[in-house]
Design a protein that fits this description.
The complex is a heterodimer. Chain A contains 12 helices and 4 strands; from the N terminus they run H-E-H-H-E-H-H-H-H-H-H-E-H-E-H-H. Chain A is mostly helical. The chains are: A mainly alpha, B mainly alpha.
Chain lengths: ~280, ~300
């Protein structure tokens, strides 16, 4: 019965937790997935959330890819000069002396990033630091091993491993069941504006308004599931006044059960009793 | 050279066997009457007829791929390219006689319509699996080198890699479906077996079509990149590095999205046929595991 009564819409952060295997929220999302599979409840995303996830994955992959190519170009330049000075035609192998240039390259990149806007800088800075840590540790491991010290092989292996994890993100995105059939919903502009009015960012307000539209159009209770406490979960009471229900993944199933128990009617008849939940 | 043409044609050839050889065929039952002295003998033979030969498929395959690319430069002569393509295809055939033999044995054994043919199909698929795996490894190596010599987005090469993983799983799924036919082939009469083969085909065709669409986009996007970096047909074999400045952004994105959507569709079919194969864990070094965890932490922001 509950299946026909309601459904869930996922926020991008919930989908991305699964795609990127985020450790902090992984258990929450796994529990939610178990709940919906036990109760056989439909779980969707809107086209806007689908695009947001797709763009985020692409953005991260491109950022990492650019850093690797940049690193390779600059180190190659240094190696060309070194080889020419030694009168050799092959690139010198990766060595202890390369750490200095790697450090310089990352310092330059950090400086370049600092000119970006504050919010973007904070995440990109951390991502850049993670890539820096990775490249340095990878080189340390390679220097210890005699076999893989060649310049070409080092970058081949570095890219190979990066591609492995990025391909895994793309595959996880492809098989996320909530994304199999993203709902192409166009929200009412008045709803988007009203939701923005309670201090919710435009992008989130759009996603929430899409869920409201779907709920009205299909006459099925639709709960927006999010991990974003600042913008969504902590504003659940205010959003309820706009006839949209939001929840943390842990409580989502119980929220839907509560609607069923306390209202027991589809939104067309039951929305007036939404304050009971 | 950034992409080895043999890898592209190898995949086309393997695909022709898998998709067309196994799924696109006709079964004919023929009654033959012969006179042996005073005796008149009537018997039935069952023929397994693939709709086209493998070489025909090679030609029609590349012509279909042309349809995925919006426009070609004036110097690109399609007929001449088809000729070039078939030459590489024939070379691949000559270099891989075991695959050709396995296919011929399967056809002459009666295809999926006889116990012998079904048995031969296992040998054919295992030979294919081996060839596909080696072709995919070669293609992946090409891609890593091409990426490092280019300013093309890493997500394109990762999508290629996702395609290789999916394509590697395809023969495994076909083989498992054939396992069901093997059991039936031991006792079933021709009519019942034909019926089961029809079910097999019906079950696998949507997956085969999805895989084929993804392969078309994969081939088309590689061919498009080569064409964008050449001035004549012979130049296609000599592209050393790739750059976005030679590429039409709109066309590039259209082909990328085609591949991306195609792969999503393939994965959707995998979820139906064999969801467990998708839950694989990847093995990487300690520093890369650290990076993976960090992206996991930062990616959701």
């Amino acid at each position: 019965m509950l299946r026909k009564f309601g459904c869930f819409f996922l926020d991008a952060c919930v989908v991305l937790t699964d795609v990127f295997q985020n450790k902090e929220y992984k258990d929450k999302v796994e529990k939610f997935n178990k709940n919906i599979s036990e109760e056989n409840i439909d779980c969707f995303t809107t086209k806007s959330v689908d695009n947001e996830c797709k763009n985020r994955i692409k953005q991260i992959i491109e950022f990492a890819g650019t850093i690797v190519v940049n690193l390779k170009l600059k180190l190659a330049h240094k190696k060309i000069i070194e080889s020419r000075d030694r009168g050799e035609h092959v690139f010198a192998p990766m060595a202890e002396t390369d750490f200095e240039l790697i450090e310089q390259i990352f310092v330059e990149k950090h400086k370049e990033l600092k000119s970006h806007d504050k919010d973007v800088y904070s995440t990109e800075k951390e991502l850049l630091s993670a890539l820096e840590h990775w490249a340095v540790s990878f080189l340390e491991e390679n220097i210890r091993s005699v076999k893989t010290r060649s310049f070409e092989l080092f970058f081949y292996n570095l890219t190979d491993e990066l591609m492995k994890i990025c391909t895994d993100f793309q595959r996880r995105f492809d098989i996320n069941k909530s994304l199999l059939d993203p709902k192409d919903v166009v929200p009412d502009t008045a709803d988007v504006d009203a939701i923005k009015g309670i201090g919710i960012e435009k992008k989130d307000a759009y996603n929430v308004a899409c869920v409201k539209k779907y709920q009205t159009k299909n006459d099925i209770w639709s709960v927006f599931v999010s991990l974003d406490y600042k913008d969504i979960v902590l504003k659940a009471d205010e959003l309820k006044k706009h006839q949209v229900l939001c929840s943390d993944p842990i409580h989502a199933i119980h929220r839907l059960k509560r609607i069923y128990r306390k209202i027991g009617e589809p939104p067309s008849k039951g929305l007036i009793k939404i304050h009971l939940i | 050279m950034v992409f080895t043409p043999a890898t592209i044609t190898a995949l086309s050839f393997q695909s022709s066997i898998l998709t067309h050889g196994l799924l696109n065929f006709e079964a004919i039952e023929e009654r033959i009457t012969e006179k042996l002295g005073h005796l008149k003998m009537t018997y039935t033979i069952r023929k397994f007829v693939p709709v086209k030969t493998l070489t025909d498929y090679g030609t029609s395959d590349i012509n279909s791929i042309f349809n995925y690319i919006k426009s070609f430069p004036d110097w690109f002569d399609k007929d001449q390219f088809v000729q070039m393509y078939n030459e590489v295809n024939n070379k691949y055939l000559a270099e891989n006689p075991d695959l050709k033999n396995a296919y011929d044995e399967f056809i002459s054994g009666g295809g999926l319509f006889s116990k012998q043919g079904v048995e031969k199909s296992h040998h054919l698929i295992s030979t294919l699996q081996e060839k596909i795996s080696s072709a995919m490894n070669g293609a992946r190596e090409d891609d890593i080198r091409a990426f490092l010599e280019s300013d093309l987005p890493l997500s394109l090469f990762c999508r290629y890699s996702t395609f290789y993983d999916a394509y590697n799983l395809y023969p495994k799924i076909v083989n498992e479906e054939i396992e069901h036919l093997t059991k039936v082939s031991y006792y079933a009469r021709f009519k019942i077996l034909s019926h089961k083969v029809k079910d097999f085909r019906y079950k696998l065709l949507p997956l085969a079509n999805a895989i084929e669409t993804a392969r078309m986009y994969w081939t088309a996007s590689k061919l498009y990149l080569l064409i964008s970096h050449s001035h004549d047909l012979s130049g296609l074999r000599n592209v050393q590095s790739l750059s976005m400045k030679h590429v039409d952004q709109t066309e590039f994105e259209r082909l990328y999205e085609g591949l991306e959507n195609g792969l999503k569709n393939v994965h959707r079919h995998f979820l139906i046929h064999k969801p467990d194969v998708l839950n694989k864990s990847i093995i990487v070094s300690q520093p890369t595991t650290y990076l993976q965890n960090e992206i996991g932490r930062l990616g959701i922001r």
